[in-house]
Amino acid sequence: MERAAELLSVARRGVAFTGAGASAESGIPTFRGAGGLWTKYDPVKVASIDSFMQDPTAYWMVSKERGGIALAARPNPGHLALVALEAAGVLVAIVTQNTDGLHQASGSSRVVEVHGSSRTVQCLDCGTRESRAVVQARLAVQMPPLCKSCGGMFLKPTVVLFGEPMPVSAMHEALALAQSADVMLVVGSSLVVQPAAGIPVAAVRAGASLIIINAEPTPFDSLAEVVIHGRAGEVLPEILTLVNT
Ligand code: OAD
Fold first, then answer.
1. Is-contact 179 206, C-beta < 8 A?
2. How confident is the model over 183-207, as a mean pLDDT?
3. Catalytic: 115?
4. Is the pTM of this model over 0.90?
5. Given phi > 0 = left and psi -120 to 50 = alpha, else beta, which region is 104?
6. To test ligand 1's pocket by mutation, which of 102, 190, 211, 238 has the most ligand atoms within 8 angstroms of CB?
7. Ligand 1 pocket, residues with Cβ under 6 angstroms
């Protein structure tokens, strides 16, 4: 903990890279690890673009539950500690795999969403966009939800499903931030999903110190200067206190 605080105290171009574990203490289940969504469902069956196109109802049955939880979720102390690290001039940005919008809700000013946002839904036929909250309300009476403009049945949250390309500009921005970072702070990611997991690696290759805070070991722990196995909502506020003293 002390070493992480030391590294962050002198950082001026720090970047946080967050995953589902950063939102776990806001009540949103992770994908992997204890109780993870992919321990209950096969991601290829429920979160790939091919399965979505074959059966949007099956996708929405799973997404309905997770979406309801995510819409009701509020930032946790880990999110707030990242905002404070930005205010202290330590972090310049957050690159996130999360689609829940909680970093923005907590007040982080530069958030790069490499897996898109679940707060917006788009019709794949006509391109019309609606807020997730509005579509979520419709799910009680309409499954799958239909486009309000063209009646199409392929309404998809603007998230990256397996088999879809990554958002090009977000990936460019994330890699540029990683390559100019002095510290890369990974929070709550299993670091097994590529190409996103390559972002912290790119930072290390360009000379950044790597700090990993995660409940469990990750494949990149050996690259890190500091590895802390714990809960983001507890560890990050403790580190913040050390940085501020
Ligand atoms: P994962 O679910 O793969 O990993 C979350 C990690 O957080 C696990 O290693 C957990 O042990 C850890 N964890 C759980 N609770 C924690 C807590 N309170 N504090 C710290 N760590 C905690 O999530 P991601 O790495 O984000 O893709 O997964 C990457 C991508 O896989 C996701 O963006 C999603 C998924 O399929 C798309 O949606 C495209």
1. yes
2. 97
3. yes
4. yes
5. alpha
6. 190
7. 19-21, 24-25, 30-33, 36, 43, 97, 115, 159-160, 188-190, 193, 214-216, 231-233
